[in-house]
Amino acid sequence: MSEAKTKSRNFRKVQVRTVKGSKDAFKRRKPVVAKCVVTGESLKGVPRALPGDLKNVPRSARRPSRPFGGVLSSRASRLEIKRRNRK
């Protein structure tokens, strides 16, 4: 019987080759692609990685370093900046 933590769909079962043969290992699933809040399109420049893996990535590579980077797409952020400047 598998452990309780591996019964959830957070983990996926992977066959791992060892010296004595193959065995089942459980790996965490990758997060879904980040999406824009306004348009719903996928965000470029935002990696699909687990939080533990993002510790080893430089901060400039975690998300775009521009206004609304990692939240809005470039098209939506351009429109939002225009809207805020016109007020």
Topology:
Elements: H1 4-7, E1 11-18, E2 21-28, H2 51-54, H3 59-62, H4 74-86
Antiparallel strand pairs: 1-2
Report on the architecture of this protein.
- This protein is 29% helix and 18% strand.
- It has 87 residues and is α+β, with helices and mostly antiparallel strands.
- It folds into two domains: 1-29, no CATH class; 31-87, no CATH class.
- It has a two-stranded antiparallel ribbon.
- The chain starts with a helix and ends with a helix.
Task: Sum up the structure in keywords.
87 residues; alpha+beta; two-stranded antiparallel ribbon; 4 helices; elongated
Quick rundown:
By secondary structure, this protein is an alpha+beta fold. The chain has four helices and two strands. The N and C termini lie far apart (62 Å).
Average pLDDT score? 90
Report the β-strand fraction as a percent range: 15-25%
Tally of extended strands? 2
Please give the count of helices.
4
| CA-based gyration radius | 19 Å
Structural class: alpha+beta
How many domain units?
Answer: 2
- What is the rounded distance between the termini? 62 Å
